[in-house]
């Protein structure tokens, strides 16, 4: 979400999204509030700091770790205030292990992704940190049914061997798809909550994510091609929920919510799927995060998504 006011963000989210509120991220506050910094702040017995080249692991918790944890606490305080008495789904999110490994550097300066042992340790630390984070959410909002979103925008690059080295002159070796799937599956199974994997990049590995145990896949619908049809059809038939990013994350004022989901209806017809499945298997969302939008547009995008989803449920044909 845009801005730096945690209470305002929580008020907007809980007011606009009556069925699925979430813990907002406010990256405009600076390092530690960004998606990578927040997730690094969740790690157990692993610490990171900001260097000129980006985030890098360190030996002990420093100012950047303390700041990330402080802002997370502030955001949880605000969410708790506006979810008194709430019962139902409540979403939190963190960067997934592969995108995190592709983003943070080891002590010697290379990306963690280059070291299988580092990826293993990072994934285990993230799993423990998320377990504690979800326990804290349950303590603060006893009626919540936690839902975890793992952000994996770099996963397609990881699988294709397109992640640049620290120098930028070369690319790190592609990660075997089976290894990527196993790491994700281990993390999902360790948490015992429904997991959504979000990837706002082309060539989302939908089948891999489904086999890894993701209950839902979140993607930018504008980046889908007919080559994704089979994977989407198989996922839906297996019960996977599709979080369809059909509302632009930035742009001019929005209009015609029903028209926003016309592409989803077209996809459903092309796949030969039962229209009655739409209401149970599709969630309408912005295409990606709203941090780059104005506060007014962010509020409009959330409301627009709710109205568009209702249109899809009321008139699936």
Integer average pLDDT: 95
In order across it, which strands form the biggest sheet? 3-4-5-6-7-8
Gyration radius, to the nearest Å? Answer: 19 Å
Helix % is: 40-55%
How many β strands by DSSP? 8
User: pLDDT under 50 segments (min length 5)?
Assistant: none
Q: SSE string, helix = H, strand = E?
A: HHEEHEHHEHHEHEHEHHHEH
The end-to-end span amounts to 33 Å
Under CATH, the topology can be stated as: TIM Barrel
CATH architecture: Alpha-Beta Barrel
Described by the principal axes of the CA atoms, the overall outline is globular
Tally the structural domains. 1
Strand content: 15-25%
Q: Count the DSSP helices.
A: 13
Name of the CATH first level: Alpha Beta
Major β-sheet profile? 6 strands, parallel
**Helix/strand/pairing category:** alpha/beta
Question: How would you portray this structure in words?
Answer:
The two termini are 33 Å apart. The chain is α/β, with parallel strands linked by helices and 317 residues long. The strands form two sheets. A six-stranded parallel β-sheet has the order 3-4-5-6-7-8. Strands 1-2 form a two-stranded antiparallel sheet. The protein is globular and about 55 Å long. Helix content is 46%, strand content 15%. Helix 5 packs parallel to helix 7. The protein has a single domain (6-314), classed as TIM Barrel. The mean pLDDT is 95. It is built from 13 helices and eight strands.
Short description:
With 317 residues, the chain is of the alpha/beta class. 46% of the residues lie in helices and 15% in strands. The strands form 2 sheets. The protein has a 6-stranded parallel β-sheet with strand order 3-4-5-6-7-8.
């Amino acid at each position: 979400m845009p801005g730096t006011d945690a209470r305002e963000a929580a008020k907007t989210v809980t007011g606009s999204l009556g069925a699925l509120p979430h813990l907002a991220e406010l990256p405009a506050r600076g390092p530690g509030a960004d998606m990578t910094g927040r997730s690094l702040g969740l790690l157990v017995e692993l610490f990171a700091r900001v260097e000129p080249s980006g985030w890098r692991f360190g030996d002990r918790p420093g100012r950047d770790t303390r700041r990330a944890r402080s802002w997370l606490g502030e955001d949880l305080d605000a969410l708790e205030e506006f979810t008194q008495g709430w019962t139902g789904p409540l979403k939190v999110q963190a960067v997934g292990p592969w995108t995190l490994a592709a983003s943070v550097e080891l002590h010697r300066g290379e990306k963690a992704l280059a070291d299988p042992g580092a990826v293993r340790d990072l994934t285990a630390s993230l799993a423990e940190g998320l377990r504690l984070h979800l326990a804290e959410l349950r303590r603060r909002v006893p009626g919540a049914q936690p839902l975890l979103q793992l952000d994996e925008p770099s996963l397609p690059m990881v699988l294709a061997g397109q992640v640049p080295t620290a120098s930028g002159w070369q690319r790190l070796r592609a990660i075997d798809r089976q290894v990527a799937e196993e790491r994700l599956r281990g993390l999902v199974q360790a948490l015992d909550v429904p997991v959504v994997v979000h990837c706002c990049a082309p060539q989302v590995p939908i089948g891999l994510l489904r086999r890894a145990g993701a209950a839902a896949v979140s993607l930018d619908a504008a980046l889908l091609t007919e080559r994704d049809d089979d994977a989407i059809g198989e996922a839906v038939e297996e019960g996977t929920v599709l979080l369809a990013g059909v509302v632009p994350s930035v742009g001019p004022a929005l209009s015609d919510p029903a028209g926003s989901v016309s592409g989803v209806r077209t996809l459903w017809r092309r796949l030969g799927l039962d229209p009655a499945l739409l209401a149970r298997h599709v969630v309408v969302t912005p295409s990606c995060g709203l941090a780059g939008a104005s506060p007014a547009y962010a509020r409009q995008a959330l409301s627009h998504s709710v109205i568009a989803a209702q249109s899809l449920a009321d008139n699936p044909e």
